[in-house]
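Hi V.,

You were right to ask for the full record rather than a summary. Here it is.
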Amino acid sequence: MPAAVAAARRTGLRSVFSGKLWFWLPWPFLVALDLWSKAAVFAWIAATYRYQPEELRHHDVFTGPVEFRLVTWGNPGTIWGLFQNGTVPLIIVRCAAIVALLVFAARTANRARLQLLVLSLIFAGAVGNLYDNLTRADHTVRDFLRFEGLWPMKWSFPAFNVADSCITVGAIGLLILLLREDRGSARPAERVS
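Predicted structure:
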């Protein structure tokens, strides 16, 4: 391999990793937190409520107008219980999303720290949920946080996990950043007219 090609490859790799700590540092911690929390809650619920059928096991953390309980549900779909019959296509989409996020992060400027951070959140969520898809026999994602309420009317929020929270916060953050950037780039054009 010629020296120029080798140097170009090293420079390309450096641009992916160098100056991108806001992307590379958060996601391993968040994936570890996601996997640990799923394992800990599922193991604790199984040990504490071992005489109950698995689908009925839950632990009430608090009750009242808003209820919070720990559950041990396997979600074959995606966030908020969507696409319940799409496990295999979702695995493919998650793999593609991971690759796309890596490319997007590599192309994001080093000074765009907030954008790198929200990309890291989304990446962590995708990796955490993909891990469940690939390692669980039924290919479901472990969800364990469940909220329900009685005010202002009866409602229930789909069970979720730390990875889902990362994806949601990251996606909302990315949307806000893109809208802010879009609005910022539209202002000079408006002044010219």
